[in-house]
Automatic annotation (TrEMBL):
Pfam families hit by this protein: Metalloenzyme
Pathway(s) where this gene product acts: Carbohydrate degradation; 2-deoxy-D-ribose 1-phosphate degradation; D-glyceraldehyde 3-phosphate and acetaldehyde from 2-deoxy-alpha-D-ribose 1-phosphate: step 1/2
Chain residues that bind Mn(2+) 2: D285, H290, H338
Cellular component per GO, a single term: cytosol
Manganese among keywords: yes
Domain of life the protein comes from: Bacteria
Catalysed reactions, as listed in the record: alpha-D-ribose 1-phosphate = D-ribose 5-phosphate; 2-deoxy-alpha-D-ribose 1-phosphate = 2-deoxy-D-ribose 5-phosphate
The entry's keywords: Cytoplasm, Isomerase, Manganese, Metal-binding
Family: Belongs to the phosphopentomutase family.
Gene: deoB
Name this protein carries in UniProt: Phosphopentomutase
HAMAP family xrefs: Phosphopentomut
Function comment: Isomerase that catalyzes the conversion of deoxy-ribose 1-phosphate (dRib-1-P) and ribose 1-phosphate (Rib-1-P) to deoxy-ribose 5-phosphate (dRib-5-P) and ribose 5-phosphate (Rib-5-P), respectively.
Compartment(s) where it occurs, according to its Swiss-Prot or TrEMBL record: Cytoplasm
Amino acid sequence: MKPFNRIALIVLDSVGIGALPDAASFGDVGVHTLGHIAETRGLSLPNLKNMGLSNIEPISGIDPVAKPLAHYGKMAEVSAGKDTTTGHWELMGVHTSTPFKTYPQGFPTELIQAFEKRIQRGVLGNKTASGTAIIEELGEEHMKTGSVIVYTSADSVFQIAAHEEVIPLEELYSICKVARELTLDDRFAVVRVIARPFTGKPGQFQRTANRRDYSVKPPQPTVLNRLQDAGLDAIGIGKISDIYAEEGITRSIPTTSNMDGVDQLLKVLNESYHGLAFINLVDFDSKYGHRRDPEGYGQALEDFDRRLPEIMDRIREQDLLIITADHGNDPTYKGTDHTREYVPLFVWSPALSDQGVSLGVRSTFSDVGATVADNFGLQAPQHGTSFLPELIQK
Ligand SMILES: O=P(O)(O)O[C@H]1O[C@H](CO)[C@@H](O)[C@H]1O
Ligand SMILES: [Mn+2]
Ligand SMILES: [Mn+2]
């Protein structure tokens, strides 16, 4: 098969497709992000349906199709985690075998004191919380005192929330860099520091799109580094660049929402790049999954589905489109955290047969990275099997 010139890789953040065999050890029993949203409020996804959504796995109210447009399957995560970083790194060939450090009881006093001293402000919170709930709880006190709100979750994250009119964005980002520096220390080893700015009045606080993530670097080179080293494009759209700590990213385009993300992707597809355009659509996860809002999640899925024909229109004969996810976040499940799930896999190109075939159950997300490497003739990542040979051409 002739290599594709361009690959567009879309990660629908948290759009899982059913519990992995080891889900119970993550506290997740019977989880199914797509399936449970469909059962709760119905899902109208005509374009994903035609790609073969229910051919992967029957989703309530969506029929399997006789001739799926895409090659389809689902992928298991082998890494010891269900967070965004772990999922994305695995997609690009790096497995995380030791779970990242988490802080269910809050961060050690020693760390918080060192942080307060450096930023010359106090800390409120320092506990596990949902981001929207903690600004409701502590936002007013933050506005009065100027202390920052620090919180964490089931993930290895040090999140810092501040009102944009109390702490200007640039100062918040500097504060995050201090936290980043302090938590690189092996004793604390936090994967991501996240700026969580918000606006509005007490009782009506709103988080803004000025979130910023400061991640540790992947422990080994990913397929993105290989692309960059080979002089190819590795364009990150949305928070992709943050997730890989800029490693291997040749250009980064920020986004403000899922729909803005789609717009940015369309722009990139209109240009002539050679390599990978890699986009993360985070609203599914941050606005609806963690908020346990199946209605909003369902609408966001329908909104994406409606844009799919525009994306497919711009995928040329020499291009390959891959759609997948990074973990689950079943909005009908207890708690507010991610869920350990399979992720769907759709692979489509005008160069491929109109009748997609099953790519089966892939044993690691790294099959995506292996495919990208295979296509561009790059050194294969340590993990993953390219599905290129399984794609049937027209
Ligand atoms: O509740 P919010 O602030 O959205 O936080 C969520 O976002 C974090 C980063 O993706 C996750 O670890 C989860 O805690
Ligand atoms: Mn994610
Ligand atoms: Mn999340």
